[in-house]
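Late entry, written up from scratch paper. The run itself happened at the end of the previous shift, but nothing got recorded in the book at the time, so transcribing now.
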Amino acid sequence: MISIKKCLAITVLALVVGCSDNNAENSVASNPVQPETSSSNPVAVEKPQTANSPQYQPVTTNNPTQTNNSHTNSSQNQPVAINNSTSDAVNDSLILPGKRVGAITSETTRTDLVQIYGESNLKDETILQAEGTVSVPATKVNQGTPSALVIFWKDEARKEILYIRGFGSQWKTPEGIGVGTSLSELRKMLGEFQLTGFGWDYGGLVNFKDTNLSKYQGTLSLTLNPGDENVYGKYPKQYGAVSGDINLSSTNPNLEPLDVRVYQMTVNFGE
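Output as recorded:
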């Protein structure tokens, strides 16, 4: 009897120990070590960013080239037409005698000049004319530049233009006549023409009558003069022959060595 009881006790004890070992093994199998697996997982590091992610930054925002292009396009969309209009008016150097001088017409006033050229490019003066016997109000424009000109007014209010002269080298007629145009070039444009002798207040004036540009008679005045200031010392005989209150032909041989050129132009808006 005693042996049977001992056998039963040993069997029960073995069963208890076996169950305890199985529970321990199950506990270890169901709880694997997570830190090592998690730290070696590259997917967690390269997780795609979304628009809601605090680290999300659109590529277009961080692209300097695209940002600059956007700024450039924005500046180009400004009212360029207005600026171009002003620029075109300032750079317009075409003289149409009797009609316009650049953007200036017979209706242009002193106030209009401010809109075209800017106040800083204007200077009002009173200039003596008619051999120093008449004082005429004038406004100088862009002085000291190739686009210079001087507007003479009919009164101090400066609302009605008398005439325009004092042109810089930039100003030309459609034919290309401007300050500095040579006598030979004028002959090609006008044909043979008449002019007054040099050396007095009305010297070197071109007569457009019966020329190829007779349409400019009364609206465009050209004053010619020898190009060399020391012409009298170099060519006293030739210069003396074409000086004084006389009329000359543009083909006069005494004019040839004097390098005669357009010295001054005067534009009127009516005969």
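Residues 90-165 form one domain.
(Scratch paper discarded after transcription.)
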